[in-house]
Amino acid sequence: MCFHDKSRKVPELTLARIVSLGDALSNPLRVKILKLLIEKEWYVYELAKELSISRQLLYLHLRKLEKAGLVSSDIRLEENKAKKYYWANEFKFIISNEAIKNLEV
C-alpha cells in the first residue's frame, strides 16, 4: 500500500491551467480513467485490461491527465518487475465568469 501526499498546494487558476484541464477532461475515456483512479490506484496493465484498451493508448491518456495535474504516478519494484501505478490527485476547481474575468491573458 502506498500513501500519497494529500497536502499538495492547489495550483493557481491560470489561462494555461484552464486550457490544460479542459483538454484533459475533453475526452470521455479520460474522464472514465479519472473516475477509476479516484476509486483506487491502478497498475497500468490492470487498468488497460479493465478498460479493454492497449497500454500504449492508456499511456497517451494518462500523460494528458498527469500534465493537467489530475493524476500522479510512481514506479515500484514488485517480484523483480518494475510496475507503474497511477492514482488521482485531490482536486477542486471552479471556473466562473469572475475567474475568467480576472485571468492574465
From TrEMBL:
Residues 10-105 form the HTH arsR-type domain. Pfam families: HTH_5. One of its GO terms (molecular function) is DNA-binding transcription factor activity. It comes from the Archaea. PROSITE patterns: HTH_ARSR_2. This is Transcriptional regulator, ArsR family. The lineage of its organism: Archaea, Methanobacteriati, Methanobacteriota, Archaeoglobi, Archaeoglobales.
